[in-house]
Amino acid sequence: MTLLEELSSHRDIVIQCHDVPDADAIASAFALGRYMESRGAGPRLVYSGKARVSKPNLTLMLNLLRIPLEYAAYVPRCDLLVTVDCQYGAGNVRRFEADHVAVFDHHRPEIPDGPSVVIRQSLGSCSTLIWSLIRDEGFDFAAAPGVYNALYYGLFTDTSNFAELRHPLDRDLAEFMPADWSLIKRLKNSTLSKDELDVVAGTLSSSRLIGGIGLLRAAPCDPNILGFSSDIAQQVEQFDSCVVYCDYLGGLKLSVRSSVREIMANELAAFLTRDVGSGGGNIEKAGGYISLECVGNAAPGVSPDDFLRSRVEEYQNCFDLVYCGAGDVDFSTFDRYRKLRIPLGFARTTDMFREGSQICVRTLEGDIDTVSSADTYLMIGISGEAYPIKRDRFESSYEVLDGPYLAETEYMPVASDRINGERKNLRQYARTCAPKSDSFIRARELTRATKVFSDWDRDRYFYGAAGDYMAASEGNPDDIYIINRDIFSRTYSRADS
Ligand SMILES: [Mn+2]
After folding, report:
1. Cβ-contact 108, 31 below 8 angstroms
2. Last residue of some domain: 172, 188, 204?
3. At what angle do helices 126-136 and 145-158 cross, to 10 degrees?
4. pTM, rounded to two decimals
5. What CA–CA distance (Å, rounded) separates 223 from 196?
6. 119 and 258 inside one domain
7. CA of 410 relative to ligand 1 center, distance in Å
8. Do both 296 and 355 map to the same domain?
9. What does the pLDDT read at residue 252?
10. What's the structural domain count of the chain?
């Protein structure tokens, strides 16, 4: 029996949102409730706390989608209490007694793990988590479009209108089926109250320029308002990029934007939150979270504002920039390494899509666009990372092995046709290959963080932290790339030069 089936078998179920619920919490409760109804249960949907829902978009959401969410000052002891978008016992959700407790959330874990605790911090919304779980149970979204619209809007609001989508599953939810866009548009244009307009004004007047990065502090506000403010700040000519932040659930919530090639917003967000939270998004827009508790451990006595400011300063001083083809690097002085014969996966794009189709490959590291052709293969690396490779390059570097590709990875890449939306999981098409025994690279461990700019992708760069490796295959010194240190130690061994 799956967890959701087991939970649905309880008699007396209450699903609880965090206090002052937002669209993500409401959508999560609604979708989980409707799933449980389809399994014969009759859960009650509640929230508690000091205030009732008053934001215009949320009142509209409850009415238009007929979501039976009740305010409950007190909930009598029940058989099963499920908290969504929050964790039972945490500070942002009133605690009620229950014989059994389950938790579904996407914030930093604050409670011990357990069989009924599902926390996925890498997801952009709790709606994504609930959607993927009930989809896997075969929930019929086509028969309940309101449930899909609610989840879609929950993700939309938690990721600044999809600008800060992080995980491939977030993107999968956003594209799962057509949403009722007239409904979403109505909700999306009812979000700003007069007080929130004042928050935006206050945020914009707080701006400071640190190096080339604008840093702005907002009063506590909805993630939406934060994203909105950072969209405006991004327009400022002097800001190469900007970071807008506010107090949020025992930490700081960050919204990051970038306007220059030398800074990718997702990588800046990851840098600022490294070891003290989490961050990600795409190259122009990203978001993140920093935990006060982690800052307290990492830098005792330093205020979170000072901590963030010093990270912004550090970011701008700690990079080497390497432009491919500029002769910056002399690879002949680098050590020589042999590629180990570890089986990897590959798929021929023309096995999956008609020749000439524009395809998008979705991976944990982001989306990659390419065109299906007999000359283009997709490689699947040791951690499930995927990238296109030209057929002649493939044939000179790898040999095809017998048998299907069976590796287990966190998210197996999915490819889709950009025009008709047809989706294919690479697992079904992948075969196994291994590097030829005579495959060598030149590589050196990085002592400083480095950004490598290639000629064939004008928008992105490879980012390497100290400890990662900068490499080029022998005979191709201008084709410089970065290899993650863990992947490097598993896939290369030192060779004689
Ligand atoms: Mn949320």
Report:
1. no
2. 188
3. 150
4. 0.75
5. 11
6. no
7. 22
8. no
9. 96
10. 4
Distance CA(13)–CA(10), nearest Å, equals 7
**CA dist., res. 210 & res. 268, Å (int):** 14
Q: Compute the distance between CA of residue 328 and CA of residue 52 in angstroms, rounded to an integer.
A: 61
CB 160 within 8 A of CB 227: yes
Q: Which domain holds residue 476?
A: 322-335+442-494
Residue 108 · residue 289 · CB < 8 Å: yes
- The answer to whether the CB of 362 falls within 8 A of the CB of 379 is no
CA–CA dist 429, 26 (Å, integer): 39
Pair (306, 230) in one structural domain: yes
Give yes or no: residues 381 and 421 share one domain: yes
CATH number reported for the structural domain that contains residue 287 in this entry: 3.10.310.40
Please name the residues in contact with 304: beta carbons below 8 A apart, sequence gap of 6 or more: 251, 252, 290, 292, 295
Q: Domain holding 172: CATH number?
A: 3.90.1640.10
Domain final residue pick, 137, 154, 188:
188
Instruction: At 101, list the tokens.
Output: 């407790």
Report mean pLDDT in 10-residue bins for the chain, 497 residues: 96 95 97 97 95 90 97 97 95 94 92 93 94 97 97 95 89 94 92 88 95 96 88 95 94 95 92 91 89 94 96 92 83 90 92 92 80 93 86 91 83 86 89 87 93 77 90 82 89 86
Gap from CA of 418 to ligand 1 centroid (Å): 29
How far apart are the CA of 158 and the centre of ligand 1, in A? 6
Yes or no: say if 397 and 433 are a contact pair by the CB < 8 Å rule: no
Ligand 1 geometric centre to CA of 92 (Å): 12
- 388, 408 Cβ separation under 8 angstroms: no
pLDDT of 396: 87
Ligand 1 centroid from CA 107, angstroms = 7
User: How many whole angstroms separate alpha carbon 309 and alpha carbon 251?
Assistant: 15
| Residues 111 and 238 grouped into a single domain | no
Predicted confidence at residue 463, as pLDDT, reads 86
Question: Which of these, 95, 120, 492, 101, lies nearest to 278 by C-alpha position?
Answer: 120
Q: Are 330 and 391 found together in one domain?
A: no
Same domain, 13 and 134: yes
On whether both 65 and 179 belong to a single domain, the answer is yes
The Å distance, Cα 26 to ligand 1 centre, comes to 9
